[in-house]
Specification:
The chain is an alpha/beta fold and 231 residues long. It has helices spanning 3-24, 42-50, 61-70, 86-92, 105-117, 146-155, 174-191, 206-211, 221-224; strands at 32-36, 55-58, 77-80, 98-102, 122-127, 159-165, 197-199, 216-219. 44% of the residues are buried. Bound molecules: pyridoxal-5'-phosphate.
Length: 231
């Protein structure tokens, strides 16, 4: 099988899983697929674009800056979904159309400066932590921090607040984690009714995420195959 055939088959399976999940819970709105292309070459991104993929996700600035430049003419929407360092935030605004992992105030100002200097607006999701407070590598803001963080994004010059993002913790039933997320989101939407994006669900748990309201799923290995361990 050629690579494009493999990707076409895998995409078909993932798209059917998304449709089936929507049908099961009676959702008629569209769930947006973001294909996570981290660790995979620009040649795969090109094939995905040919197969109708519009949104791709990357988690490392160095890798993404090169890949997005190589794929510039494809007109894809690039999502940054990785851990963010404030010294890279400005540069990330150079290629990312959507930054999904804003979890502290410092990132907002740095990203906004980057977006301004490149004179293009960047869509922002706030990352919500679903980890227990004792977890070693927590990513994301606590529910109680979202309000202040959202206000900063709204007050920024070149960022648009679009919604929330989360990753289900390893070792917990994803449905339980996404149920907490749905509660957080309900509160959040009362203050920011137009920030309706909910990015949740990956290869292993997209069904549970869609059942609990995800509008965007981020799927890597189910489309591209297993990722190379390290690069
Ligand atoms: C890698 C990654 C994904 C995709 O994970 P798969 O299990 O390969 O689908 C989704 N979201 C984030 C934040 C990631 O880092």
């Amino acid at each position: 099988m050629t690579r494009i055939e493999e990707l076409r088959d895998n995409l078909g399976v993932v798209r059917r899983r998304i449709e089936e999940s929507c049908r099961t819970v009676g959702r008629s709105d569209e769930v947006q697929l973001i294909v996570v292309t981290k660790f995979f070459p620009a040649s795969d991104v090109r094939l995905l674009a040919k197969l109708g993929v519009t949104d791709v996700g990357e988690n490392r600035h160095q890798e993404a800056v090169a890949k997005s430049a190589e794929c510039e003419e494809l007109g894809l929407r690039w999502h940054f979904i990785g851990a963010m360092q404030s010294n890279k935030a400005g540069a990330i605004a150079g290629w990312a159309d959507v930054v999904e992992t804003i979890d502290r105030p410092k990132l907002v100002s740095a990203l906004d400066r980057g977006a301004q200097s490149r004179s293009h607006e960047v869509d922002v999701l706030l990352q919500v932590s679903l980890d227990p407070p004792s977890a070693a590598h927590r990513a994301g803001a606590d529910a109680g921090e979202l309000s202040a963080l959202a206000d900063r994004v709204v007050a920024s010059e070149s960022l648009r607040l679009r919604g929330l993002m989360a990753v289900a913790p390893l070792g917990e039933d994803p449905a339980a984690a996404f149920t907490r997320l749905a509660d957080v989101r309900e509160q959040f939407l009362q203050e920011h009714p137009s920030a309706t994006v909910l990015s949740a669900g990956m290869s292993a748990d997209l069904e549970q995420a869609i059942a609990l309201g995800a509008t965007h799923v981020r799927v890597g290995s189910a489309v591209l195959g297993p990722r190379p361990a390290v690069k």
